Amino acid sequence: MYRKPTIVAMDLEGVLVPEVWIAVAEKTGIEKLRLTTRDISDYDELMRMRIAILRENGVTLRDIQEVISTMDPLPGAGDFIDWLRREVQPIILSDTYYEFALPLMEKLGYPTLFCNSIEADGGNTVTDYHLRIGDGKRKAVEAFKGINFRVIAVGDSYNDTTMLASADLGILFRPPDNVVDEFPQFRVCREYGELRSYIADYITE
């Protein structure tokens, strides 16, 4: 029996780990930093707002990294990643930054991560962000399909929807109601066990 090689492409924050910016907001008390791509669909608008808030409040890249170092993956995420490794090839496609992600990747066993970069000045103030490529999640999925992988995509927010639409199977994991309402074409899973069962059924069809 032939089974086409499969990649499971996943978002990071909200799917495997808590939202970094919400953790920073809780640590600093800056409520506007709680806004994420679940709230603002325009990623550039969101990031420009975040960078301005950090500068106005004297929050540095090092401050953010210290918050991230205290964070842990979501309960069950590590076991889910371990199961995926045995069954398919998991790849994380994230809008986070390499300068943020290392402590969380260590706790997840260093899965493959495609993400972006943050720029800081000599005083460690965040000054800019750099996307590897616009709409990178969708383009990565299309590239995987172009080299004859079947792709399952898992995300939770607005910025994941083009990735989900381009995949052979798109799944929303613990999305907010507004995303569910706007994108009813995607299956919704709320727990890792449910997500695992749905993926297992799909790859054995």
Descriptive account of the structure:
The protein is of the alpha/beta class and 205 residues long. 43% of the residues lie in helices and 20% in strands. The chain has 9 helices and 7 strands; from the N terminus they run E-H-H-H-H-E-H-E-E-H-E-H-E-H-E-H. Strands 4-3-2-1-5-6-7 form a 7-stranded mixed beta sheet, with helices on both faces. Strand 3 (112-120) and strand 4 (126-130) form a beta hairpin. The N and C termini lie close together (11 Å). The relative contact order is 0.18.
Helicity level: 40-55%
Rg, rounded, reads: 17 Å
Q: Strand-and-helix sequence, N→C?
A: EHHHHEHEEHEHEHEH
Quantity of strands, as a count: 7
* Overall spatial form: globular
Rounded average pLDDT = 94
Strand content: 15-25%
What's the tally of helices? 9
Strand adjacency order, main sheet: 4-3-2-1-5-6-7
Q: What distance separates the N and C termini? A: 11 Å
List keywords for this structure.
205 residues, alpha/beta, seven-stranded mixed beta sheet, 9 helices, 43% helix, globular
Write the layout of secondary structure elements.
Layout: E1 6-10, H1 20-28, H2 43-57, H3 61-69, H4 77-87, E2 89-97, H5 98-107, E3 112-120, E4 126-130, H6 136-146, E5 150-155, H7 161-166, E6 169-173, H8 177-182, E7 187-189, H9 192-203
Parallel strand pairs: 1-2, 1-5, 2-3, 5-6, 6-7
Antiparallel strand pairs: 3-4
Helix pairs in contact: 3-5, 4-9
